[in-house]
UniProtKB/TrEMBL annotation:
<dbReference type="InterPro" id="IPR046357">
    <property type="entry name" value="PPIase_dom_sf"/>
</dbReference>
<keyword id="KW-0413">Isomerase</keyword>
<dbReference type="InterPro" id="IPR001179">
    <property type="entry name" value="PPIase_FKBP_dom"/>
</dbReference>
<keyword id="KW-0697">Rotamase</keyword>
<dbReference type="GO" id="GO:0005737">
    <property type="term" value="C:cytoplasm"/>
</dbReference>
<feature type="domain" description="PPIase FKBP-type">
    <location>
        <begin position="6"/>
        <end position="83"/>
    </location>
</feature>
<keyword id="KW-0963">Cytoplasm</keyword>
<dbReference type="GO" id="GO:0003755">
    <property type="term" value="F:peptidyl-prolyl cis-trans isomerase activity"/>
</dbReference>
<dbReference type="InterPro" id="IPR048261">
    <property type="entry name" value="SlpA/SlyD-like_ins_sf"/>
</dbReference>
<protein>
    <recommendedName>
        <fullName>Peptidyl-prolyl cis-trans isomerase</fullName>
        <ecNumber>5.2.1.8</ecNumber>
    </recommendedName>
</protein>
<comment type="similarity">
    <text>Belongs to the FKBP-type PPIase family.</text>
</comment>
<keyword id="KW-0143">Chaperone</keyword>
<dbReference type="GO" id="GO:0042026">
    <property type="term" value="P:protein refolding"/>
</dbReference>
<comment type="function">
    <text>Also involved in hydrogenase metallocenter assembly, probably by participating in the nickel insertion step. This function in hydrogenase biosynthesis requires chaperone activity and the presence of the metal-binding domain, but not PPIase activity.</text>
</comment>
<dbReference type="Pfam" id="PF00254">
    <property type="entry name" value="FKBP_C"/>
</dbReference>
Amino acid sequence: MIIANDCVVAFHYTLTDDDGVEIDTSKGQEPLAYLHGHGGIIPGLENELAGKTIGDAMKVTVQPADGYGELNPELIQPVPRAAFQGVDQIEVGMQFQAQGAGGQMQTVVVKEVDDENVTVDANHPLAGKVLNFDVSIESVREASEEELTHGHAH
C-alpha cells in the first residue's frame, strides 16, 4: 500500500540538527504511527512520506517553515521576577507553564535571569531549526472509521 491521505503509517526515525547532533529517535521503541493527511506530524516530513511504501528508507531535510516555524522574537520576553512567586531558585533552562494571550497554556523556557526580570522564550524548542530525518517505513494500512473520526492513529 502506498502512503496517501487517510492511511495509518508507522515509521522509525532519527532526528538530527545541522551539526549532526541527535535530537530524537524511535530506536529501541515502537515506531511512530500517525494518520497521513491529518496534521499528526510536521508538514515537511509528511509531504516527503507521501507516495512511499513499506520498506522504503530515506533522508529528509525539513526547513523551519515546514517544521516548527521560524523563531519568533516576539515570543521572547522579560517577565518580572514577582510573577514567579513560590519559586526560590530560577535558572536558565527551567521550563514553566504560562497562560498565553488567547488563554491557552504554553510552555516557556527561561533564557536569562537578573535581579528584576526573568526572560522567557515561548517558541517551540525546534523553531528556527533545520531538521534532518533518517526514516524507514515499517507499515502502511487503511485507517479505521474510528481513526478517521478521531483524526489520529490508534
